[in-house]
Amino acid sequence: MNIIEIKNLQFEYKEYDDAGEVTSTNPVLKGLDLTVPEGQFLAVLGHNGCGKSTLAKHLNGILTATGGTVTVNGMDASDENKLFDIRQTVGMVFQNPDNQLVATVVEEDVAFALENLGVPTEEIRKRVNGALRIVDMYEYREHSPHQLSGGQKQRVAIAGVLAMKPKCIVLDEPTAMLDPKGRAEVMETVKMLNEQGVTIVLITHYMDEACQADRVVVMDDGVIIMDDTPKKIFARVDELKAVSLDVPQVTELMYRLRKHGVGVPADVITEQECADELLKLPHLAKAGITKNAQTRAGSGGSYAAEVKHLTYKYSVGTPFEATAVDDVSVSIEKGQFVGVIGHTGSGKSTLIQHLNGLLKPTSGEILINGRNIWDKDTDIRAVRFMAGLVFQYSEYQLFEDTVYKDIAFGPKNMGLSEAETDARVREAAAAMGLDDELLERSPFDLSGGQKRRAALAGVIAMKPEILILDEPAAGLDPKGRDTVLDEISEYHRNSGTTILLVSHSMEDIVKYAEKILVMNRGRLFCYEDTDTVFSRTRELKQIGLGIPQISRLSHLLKAGGMDIGDDIYTIDRAEERILEILKTNA
Amino acid sequence: MLNDITIGQFFPGNSVIHRMDSRFKIVLEILIVVILFVAQNFWGLGISCAFILMIYAASGISFRLMLKSLKPVLPIIIFTAVLNLLFVKGTDAPLVSFWVINIYEKGIITSAFMLLRIVVLRIAMSLLTYTTSPIVLTDAIESLMKPLKKVKFPVHELAMMMTIALRFIPTLIEETNKIMMAQKARGASLDTGGLIKRARAMVPILIPLFISAFKRANELATAMECRCYRGGEGRTKLRVLKATRLDLYGTGLTLCVLGIVIINNIVFG
After folding, report:
1. Coil vs helix vs strand at A198
2. C-alpha to C-alpha distance for A187 and A194, rounded to whole angstroms
3. Are B222 and B248 contained in the same domain?
4. Is B114 within a domain?
5. Same domain, yes or no, for A268 and A393?
6. Which chain A residue's Cα is nearest to B181?
7. CB contact under 8 A, B235 and A462
8. Contact criterion met (CB < 8 Å) for B219 and A99
């Protein structure tokens, strides 16, 4: 039986003027058809603005279609009388874990829907406990939401939906704001619910999550353009790239090898399958690949930032005292592109907030350009202009009425002249790929990716010697992510600015960074060039860091007798090595 | 870093005071205020003080916390005491007299009396928030205000607003900190300059904060709708407030103290 049936669904957002007249209509869904059988795990892919979230809101009557029909478990979703039955049948979980929890206590929050439905108290208690046990949050039932991690909050949100005993759960990018651990927790919960028979509709930007689904649909411009199993969908690399989407790394590798005429199948999505296929090739004995690891020389012992025995403690003198950074010493060479990685709570955020003087060390010293920033005669504001820090979700700092003025905020605070400010604003905007005509627009009218780049330009316009970026790509779709990171990388090449890129994503870091700084439990785990760091993958795994799929593939290949080197972390290098082996053995 | 903020200063426990119905606690709290103001002499005040200290001991809340609760109201306490000391005039000759200042015996007594009264009042009030979680307190207020529904007063909506406010205070504090850091990183100076300059420096903090708060409100409203929220009509509760024998004893005891204080007033008045 089909839990969801959508026929020719159309929806348009209307804008009204003060008199209530429609000024413009913006069609979002343009005749979409979709049928979801009960018990299926469906993943929905599509770039930002393709209409995924709008579709989700039609599945439980939050939005009403302007054309076509949506049928949920046999009920017409536009039928006002069945509204609450529909919302009980299809539960929704949203992206921001904070903005969907209502109550100040976990169990109260889980009970919220049941209280609204007028379920008797004893029954509420039973169902709340049951739902909390399913998502493994029972022991946290008396906690406040703000004491929980992002992943835990999302599991509470799922429990709040589960308490209604829904047949289907729609999750709209539930992992976009989570760290790798939180993502894994949520995905595990989702898969477990699906095994128990709950239909899952998962909207996501993460291809590895989509790979775990039974079926994937791809949306573009308000309609569904592809609908198949994950394997078959991802094999269509060209089509996916045309709609700004991504494919798993191993799929991309297969795609490239095929272009070179290597006889491998296209529909490969896991590293195991990929390794099996590659090992099937008439490969030869152990390939004698010499590692062409090139260590880049630092620029002659000149450091952009030096951290000496930095220790930082929170809430000193209270029972909540905790050491966030513990005796860290590291020197960052000028002009380097450094990736900073570590799991949540490893101290990486605390470390970077010291580099521009936002936090004052409990003990230890910070030197920027050779000068101690906490010397009496150092102006701390001048330090902030030298070491520019861009926070996570930096678009939240935008406040001016035009993009131009917002980017000019930093340079103006520096006391620069009008002419110099103007030049810097335009230069920074251009560096971040923002057109001149965008400068006069309100920052709040921009797309998500553009807002992010406008916020980055606001810091770049200060021309800092070190640019520190905390998760600059978080929450963006694959295209937005690549655009932002590419602009940053290009800016690095053109300006020679030292860059510190903080990220949870090893894939992003290895693509751009020359050196990697790994933090673990408040201590410096290592600061080495990327090849050296990757020769220690086993240790990286031990401290809970994910490694790129392509590296995992290289390990599987090695175990199978095909050694392509220990320094594989980009698709480019894997492709190069495999082609080389095939050529030598041809 | 912000996990140590205790909103409403609730300290969980399982004492008789913790176990009392929060509605009774609120009503008895009001009764205690009445007792304190009915008490007209030191005997009456002494009895009420002893009663409140007894409740305090029963709650198991530490003495240190009791003193801590006085800290924010200390200026008011001192101000009132000094005011009474200086301006209450007795009929007899002043005890101390220099320049324009005259201190009378009556002034000292009144001052001490007021001091004690405010201190005890504050302690009694802190006891309510120390032993009752904010959410239970909200439930109690909603329940006590229920009769006002008859005159179309939005009791449920008010309680819901309080709950959401409590829920989002830590989130918004964290957010404010984040935005402040981000603007500081762009060279905003928030704590230098005159009043007007400082007020203007708040603009880059407040605008992003408002925008984000509206966005949160919007998303929360959708999430609430998805979980079948439709106002207070026909709602049930996970936690139901239930009066027990304990609450009857508490009420009886408090009324007794009130009675004693009134009799004391009449006899010694």
Report:
1. coil
2. 11
3. no
4. yes
5. no
6. A358
7. no
8. yes
pTM metric for this prediction: 0.87
* pLDDT tens-place values along chain A, 586 residues long: 899 999 999 999 888 888 878 888 889 999 999 999 999 999 999 998 899 999 999 999 999 999 999 999 999 998 889 999 999 999 999 999 999 999 988 999 999 999 999 999 999 999 999 999 999 999 999 888 988 999 999 999 999 999 999 999 999 999 999 988 899 999 999 999 999 999 999 999 999 999 999 999 999 999 999 999 999 999 999 999 999 899 999 999 999 999 998 889 999 999 999 999 998 887 654 555 554 444 444 445 689 999 999 999 987 777 778 899 999 999 999 999 999 999 888 999 999 999 989 999 999 999 998 889 998 888 888 888 999 999 999 998 999 999 999 999 999 999 999 999 999 999 999 999 999 999 999 998 898 889 999 999 999 999 999 999 999 998 888 889 999 999 999 999 999 999 999 998 888 899 899 999 999 999 999 999 998 888 888 888 888 888 899 999 999 998 888 888 888 899 999 999 999 888 887 6
Q: Which of residues 171-190 of B touch A (CB under 8 A)?
A: 171, 174-175, 178-179, 181-189
Q: In one letter, which amino acid is A578? A: I
Q: What is the CATH number of the domain that holds A196?
A: 3.40.50.300
Instruction: Check whether residue A80 and residue A194 sit in a common domain.
Output: yes
Beta bridge partners of A340: A502, A517
Contacts of B188 in chain A (CB under 8 A): 409, 413
User: Cβ separation of B230 and A116 shorter than 8 Å?
Assistant: yes
Is residue B155 in a domain? no
Contacts of A320 in chain B (CB under 8 A): 3-4
ipTM attached to this prediction: 0.89
CA B21 to chain centre: 18
The count of domains in chain B is 2
Strands (E), A297-353: 303-314, 322-333, 337-341
B171 shares its domain with B119: no
Domain extent, residue A259, equals 255-282+550-584
The separation between the first and the last C-alpha atoms of chain A, rounded to the nearest angstrom, is 53
Residues 6+ apart with CB under 8 A from A400: A406, A408, A409, A443
